[in-house]
């Protein structure tokens, strides 16, 4: 039996993201019974989302290997199931695994068809107007296109719109008030047990060696004058 465990471990490692795919498949089945015109998914951060969206291709490539392992260790799995009582009725464990694989294939196909049908699914990217967010959004758009998923909308949050008629000083004061509320919560939750570092928002992007050096000096409390701050 010990020789079986590496095989099962290999099976799990071969299909990363399988848990998310199964969960999404179950969610799709639940949604089909709901009477809504539109369903909105607030997805995980970019990396997790791409892992989920890339699962169908990964799973398709892993199927032959999974079937090979099931065939190779099928007899052992059947014996293990009989000895431990882990059977589905009178069905041997290896047969059950084979059937589950077929069911999962069908679920993955349904999810893929749902994703790639622009009349049923579209993806809305959300970002903020800063370097890293723009970079991640570009990566996301390219990956979505490679997965043949419709994407035509980008929402940009935290835009400073001077044409909106809100005085800059009033806007800054209002945002500062919002932040103070949560800074107080952070202090109450963590200040006693953690070293909390509060980094102020700066008028320039922190990019390049010179800016990083100035930034580090400010963080260390050596000077704020290098940013024109006092």
UniProtKB/TrEMBL annotation:
InterPro entries cross-referenced by the UniProt entry: ArsA/GET3_ATPase-like, ATPase_ArsA/GET3, P-loop_NTPase
CDD domains linked to this entry: ArsA
SUPFAM superfamilies listed in its UniProt record: P-loop containing nucleoside triphosphate hydrolases
Recorded GO CC terms: GET complex
A GO biological-process term: tail-anchored membrane protein insertion into ER membrane
Pfam families recorded: ArsA_ATPase (PF02374)
Recorded superkingdom: Eukaryota
Segments forming domain ArsA/GET3 Anion-transporting ATPase-like: 8-220
Single Gene Ontology MF annotation: ATP hydrolysis activity
PANTHER family: ARSENICAL PUMP-DRIVING ATPASE ARSENITE-TRANSLOCATING ATPASE, ATPASE GET3
Family: Belongs to the arsA ATPase family.
Stated name of the protein: ArsA/GET3 Anion-transporting ATPase-like domain-containing protein
């Amino acid at each position: 039996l010990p020789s079986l465990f590496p095989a099962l471990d290999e099976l799990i490692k071969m299909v990363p993201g399988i848990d998310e795919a199964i969960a999404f498949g179950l969610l799709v089945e639940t949604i089909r019974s709901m009477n809504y015109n539109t369903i909105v998914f607030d997805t995980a951060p970019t990396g997790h989302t791409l892992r989920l969206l890339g699962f169908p291709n990964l799973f398709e490539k892993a199927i032959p290997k999974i079937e090979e392992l099931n065939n190779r260790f099928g007899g052992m799995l059947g014996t293990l199931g009989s000895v431990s009582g882990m059977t589905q009725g009178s069905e041997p464990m290896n047969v059950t695994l084979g059937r589950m694989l077929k069911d999962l294939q069908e679920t993955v196909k349904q999810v893929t068809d749902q994703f790639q049908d622009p009349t049923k699914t579209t993806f809305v990217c959300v970002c903020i107007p800063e370097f890293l967010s723009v970079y991640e959004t570009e990566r996301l758009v390219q990956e979505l296109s490679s997965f043949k998923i419709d994407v035509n909308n980008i929402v940009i949050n935290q835009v400073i719109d001077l044409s909106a008629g809100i005085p800059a000083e009033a806007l800054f004061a209002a945002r500062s008030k919002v932040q103070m509320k949560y800074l107080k919560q952070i202090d109450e939750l963590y200040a006693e047990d953690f070293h909390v570092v509060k980094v102020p928002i700066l008028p320039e992007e922190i990019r390049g060696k010179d800016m990083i050096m100035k930034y580090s000096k400010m963080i260390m409390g050596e000077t704020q004058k290098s940013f024109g701050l006092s």
